[in-house]
Amino acid sequence: ALQAGKSVTREVCLVNRSRAQISNCYITLLPSENSITRDILTIQPTSPISLKARGGTTTVSVKFTPRSRLAPFVEQIFLKYGDLDVPMFAVRGCCQGYDITLDSDTLPFGAVGKDCSLTRKLILSNRGDIGGSFSWNLSQLRDTPFRVLPTNGYIAPGQDITIEFIFQPRTIRHDIRCDKLECRLEGTQSVYVTLSGSCVEVAPARETIIISTAVRTKELSKPIVLKNNTNTLWTLTPIISGEYFSGSETVIIEPNSTKNYELTYLPLTEGKHNGTLFFPLPDGNGLLYNVIGNAEPPRASGKFIREVPCKTPYVELLPIENWLKKPQRFRVTHETIKQDRPEVATTIKYLEFIDVAPKSKRDFKLQFYSYKECIQQIKIIFKNEQTQEYIWYDITFKSTVDKRNAPTIANIELTTHVRQQTSHDIILENPLPHKVTFQGQCSHPDILLPPEQVSIPANSQGSFNFTYMPLKAGKIETRLEINSAELGLYTYMLTLNALPARPERTLYFKAPLGNLQVLTAKFTSYARTKTDYVCKIDHPDFIVDRTVTAAPSSSPSTMEVSVDVTYEPSQLGDVRATLTISSPSTSDYIFPLVGLGELPKPQGPFTIKAGSNTTITFKNIFAQALTYTFNVDNPLFHVTKSQELIQARKSHRIVVSFDGSDTINKADIMAKLIVSCPKTTGATNTSSSSVQWIYYLKGITP
Predict the structure, then answer these.
(1) How far apart are CA 439 and CA 485, in angstroms?
(2) Distances (CA, A) of 557 to 547, 552, 590
(3) pLDDT in tens, 615-640
(4) Distance from first CA to last CA of the chain, Å, rounded?
(5) pTM (2 decimals)?
(6) Domains of the chain
């Protein structure tokens, strides 16, 4: 594409590849009806040409010189040889240019009353390929009652721009005109329009029309009665002056009839606005009305009540409308109209500014939060600080509390083992300018709360610490309520997970066969009432009382309970058992027990006087009846029976007598009583079959 006034040349090489020479040929355009392209395309050479056989060449140049805008075209270039036209190549091109016009070159305004104004519009269109700037020759309008808007600008390709012409005569004249008002265009010729009109005397105003309404609220005037007493149809064009007043552009009144006309008042600014309404009549007269508009403060864009649960963030979307044809920025403020409980703290948050595009709407987020029940009515204002115009909403927030379905601030999950404590801190915020106190409450006995109120200084944060110490394993849910006289109720959902209790300290026993050892198992009772604990051991070598009673516990770790455990081994080596202490109100206490059974230790000596006897108590420690043998290694000592069947875990009295010493010096005689069982059961190793109990004897001869 080429612009007008410029030129471009293209060259093409023609080659003769035939075996014959070509001579007396011409390069020409295809004859066509398009004379425009023939005038702007120049082909060289214009004289006859000759091409030698087998490779003869010549160069053809085509020069394109457009003088105005030209649509895309295609032209064929031919080689003329005698009567024969042979197509050689095609030329394609176009020319970009301006095509800017007005939709009319005349604009009559007709009769306009003195000091009245009338606006007419024309469309400036660009149908060309190139945009350009435009400007009106304002010097032609200097002494005329005509004005033009805009006075200059830029029009892009394909764009239409509305040009407004205002006619506002100040002097009575029948012919007022501006001939060929020039609109200068960049890169092309100017366009012109002739403006004409007349100025007539306006009769004194018949009456004054007063319209009152809130700013940005449309209001209609009382009907204005127009009467046509003639036999011809009237088509009236009302002339309305004054900002914010409007009405129908034409009024058609049938012959000998009347019609009502209503004036619309839509003020965009507060205050008083003046204007006129003029009806030019076909008979040369006119009807003039003075118009006064009173724009009162704006009405609320919305007035509503919202019920909002306490301790729950709430967002209200407010539609903000820009009534102007240009962007507006509003500064946002609010004021409290009334509040039934001024001591209740509420929070109202929003952005300080909001920008709204021309003639559009945008939602504005208003955040409300209340700590306690109250009713608060607020006025939120959106003000254009440049024009001082504003819109506002009247909103009443009614904060409510449903104690049965109170909103949960947070869910807290705590996990620990039975009788093990875990603590948690809740961060509480005090937005008030003075100190506030919080008191906790929870119905579950495993939750331990601070004994005193928690105080938080003004405009700061603090922590509320509580402890979870379960007495039984399992998973439950409960509520924790933290209440403040100033800030209301905070509800938290607690998920409590109590894992089985860890084992208590292991008790280690060590005793020889036939002997016993007693150790004390101590545990802390957290039962809040008098409780009987049931004690069980899963091994017969350990003995414990069936029950033990604990007094009620007033606070954690204050009531220690002791249980005596007896270990009486029935076999050699290690044995393991478990002591379980349980009650209906708490989880079990588990004590691991480890016992070590050793070989019996010799006992004695038992002193026996000559001719007398003594009794030695021996117990069958095994879980079944066994036959035991009794042997003395000195013939001066005797046992009543050499063997005896002893029932399981029963004692037997062995009677040992001493005959006396037959020596001259009557020295003390020493001996051993050996108790054995040929078949020992319950043994843990092979050596148990030879277990013996040895009792030393001492015989005294007086």
Answers:
(1) 9
(2) 21, 12, 17
(3) 999 988 888 888 999 999 988 899 98
(4) 154
(5) 0.48
(6) 2-96 (2.60.40.10), 100-200 (2.60.40.10), 207-296 (2.60.40.10), 302-400 (2.60.40.2310), 410-498 (2.60.40.10), 507-598 (2.60.40.10), 603-700 (2.60.40.10)
